[in-house]
Design brief:
single chain; mainly beta; 11-stranded mixed β-sheet; 4-stranded antiparallel β-sheet; 3 helices
């Protein structure tokens, strides 16, 4: 029997974690030292165990925090799986790189439980649709064993195991044969393809994912909607203490379908000191307050700071173990200018008299 489904639009929980760009849709900047989005396409080990489950599913989906898990005793709303339809925009040629064609990727995986968090992100202040989060590392005096992770002081939790949910049928997404539906069989319990055009749908097109079911779960279905490709209109992103940051983009044609999510992280090399996350209406602009910007700058910055902004449409359904999401996304990652920070990969990138600090990737 097919379970009921719910479409979550722009009022999806702000407490959900945003780890965007890395998102399967995320392209790393040519100037940065991060890995490419293709690294996230791994479908795991053949035995179904996934030590990097968090990395695979966190990209576009909303993962509840450990605190949220504890509030739901039956775990019925904890995120246990996600299907991500990510629009990867074309890249123009430069003097040193070739042009890359755009494409759409599809990736999905379902686990037998929620993914534990090794870092607890705690809200320090909020302003409007944005909040400043700082990391806290839980401590377990007795080290966790057997692949478990310390998720809270003196508490270990095992990683979930990926599951076979039967064949998956996708509709509303075109493939390169101009067919608007296709089937995927599991490979190491993952479902994926990058053989899809850009874009593979129009804004407002219904997109469905139907799983045939297996011994793990009965058949279920998800529905979301196609979105327009996203792009920022800002010519540059410069952070200054005491000054608000305004982001501008072309608003969605159907604003009730999608939301815009933001992650501003200026210290992710060498260990993040904090980040700003926002979840806003897709109306064409967002102001991140001066107080939040100042607080983030006070925490410090490292090389290659970036901001990730994504348009997302999300649908959800419940299975016996928890929630499964269908996330349709289009995102951009843009370099951020921070006063006093000169990013580098080698000493050659630094002014005379300075060297490149390889942990923080900044000139000192």
């Amino acid at each position: 029997m097919v379970t009921s489904m719910t479409i979550r639009t722009q009022k999806s929980t702000l407490a959900s974690r945003l780890i965007l760009a890395g998102v399967a849709a995320m392209l790393c900047l040519p100037v940065s030292a991060c890995s490419s989005a293709s690294d996230d396409a791994d479908v795991g080990d053949d035995d179904g165990t996934d030590g990097d489950a968090d990395e695979q599913l966190d990209q576009d989906a909303d993962f509840p925090s450990e605190e949220e898990h504890d509030e739901v005793s039956d775990n019925s709303s904890a995120l246990v799986g996600a299907f991500q339809v990510s629009m990867i925009a074309p890249v123009e040629a430069t003097e040193t790189t070739e042009a890359k064609a755009g494409y759409t990727s599809f990736f999905g995986k379902v686990y037998d439980g929620a993914t534990p968090e090794q870092v607890v992100w705690e809200e320090k202040i909020s302003d409007g649709p944005c909040r400043l989060l700082k990391p806290r590392i839980p401590f377990c005096s007795t080290p966790c064993t057997g692949g478990a992770v310390c998720v809270e002081d003196e508490r270990c939790r095992d990683y979930p195991v990926s599951q076979n949910i039967g064949a998956v049928h996708v509709t509303g997404v075109a493939n390169n044969a101009s067919e608007t539906e296709f089937d995927l069989e599991p490979i190491s319990n993952g479902y994926q393809t990058t053989d899809l055009p850009y874009p593979a749908f129009s804004e407002g097109d219904p997109i469905t994912v139907s799983a045939a079911g297996s011994d793990f779960t009965p058949a279920f279905a998800l529905e979301a909607y196609g979105i327009a490709p996203f792009g920022l209109s800002n010519s540059s992103i410069v952070l200054s203490a005491g000054q608000a940051l305004t982001l501008i983009w072309t608003p969605a044609g159907q604003a009730d379908i999608s939301i815009v999510k933001v992650k501003l992280d200026i210290s992710h090399h060498g260990g993040s000191k904090g980040k700003i996350e926002c979840e806003a209406e897709d109306n064409g602009s967002l102001v991140i307050s001066a107080s939040l910007i100042s607080e983030l700058l006070d925490l410090g910055a490292t090389g290659f700071p970036t901001i990730v902004v994504a348009r997302q449409a999300t649908g959800s359904t419940e299975i016996s173990n928890g929630r499964v999401d269908l996330v349709v996304s289009s995102s951009v990652e843009v370099a951020v200018e921070v006063p006093g920070v000169i990013s580098c990969n080698s000493d050659d990138d630094c002014p005379e008299g300075q060297t490149c600090e390889t942990t923080f990737l900044m000139c000192q």
